[in-house]
Amino acid sequence: MSRKKFLSAVFFLIALLAPVIVFAGADVVETGRLLAILLDAGRGAVAANQPLINDASKGDKGFTPDVFAQQLAEKFKARASVDLGNLKGSGVPEMAQKLLLELVEAAKKTVANNQDKINKPGVAYKGFTPAHFGTQTATLFSEKSGIYMKQTTTDALLRNPKNKADDFESGMMKKFGDSAYPRQGDKIASETTDGAVRVMLPLFYGKGCMGCHGGPKGEMDVSGYKKEGAKEGDLGGAVSVKLPAK
């Protein structure tokens, strides 16, 4: 085969495979985005039930894994327009279908593992918050699936050493912390590096976060940590997901 014909054949194969490569890359990024949103939706479900969880006058709160899962599905559908009960019909990438269900199971297991705390009467602060949920669920999911997932934050806000950011995550959070970065709409950042697709979803403080992370700065919060003096809309951290590029 002549060099000209050889090069033509190579270019033909590249043109033929390029759409597949691009499509696969887009699927990986979308899978990471959906996983990050699902974990944060679980954080939101716990946050919505925080007054109930912290009610010292009640024993059994009725916040079971199944009740949680229903609320999780509702919050996720509202944010991602994806029905966890019909993933194939929702048009999500094939690789995401399996992983989303595995994350749901990890999230339910976290709630199950904390039932004794949640239902303990006579105690207000139970040590089960959106942050606790996020760390524990991400760990369970990663152990089961082999997919890297972490709830992380900046060194200045770090309370749990398990959540310490790596260099990539620290760099991305500097961008998230810029006041120009969108605070609404689940605006992820993604990058392919070292054979992996990194996806990060920023987490911004909401009104419900101010009890532990607001002011006055330096005052002890209910969990025994010093408040950071944050304001609504400030960066609180991020959900980080790392998936194989191929």
Strand and helix layout:
Elements (H helix, E strand, L loop, with lengths): L2 H46 L1 H4 L11 H16 L13 H20 L1 H4 L11 H16 L2 E5 L14 H10 L12 E5 L2 E9 L5 H4 L21 E10 L2
Antiparallel strand pairs: 1-4, 2-3, 3-4
Helix pairs in contact: 1-3, 1-4, 1-6, 3-4, 4-6
Explain what this protein looks like in three dimensions.
The protein is 49% helix and 12% strand. It is of the alpha+beta class and 246 residues long. Strands 1-4-3-2 form a 4-stranded antiparallel β-sheet, with helices on both faces. Strand 2 (189-193) and strand 3 form a beta hairpin. Helix 1 packs parallel to helix 4 (94-113), helix 1 (3-48) runs antiparallel to helix 6 and helix 4 (94-113) crosses helix 6. The longest helix is centred in the first third of the chain and has 46 residues, at 3-48. The model is unreliable at 3-24 (pLDDT under 50).
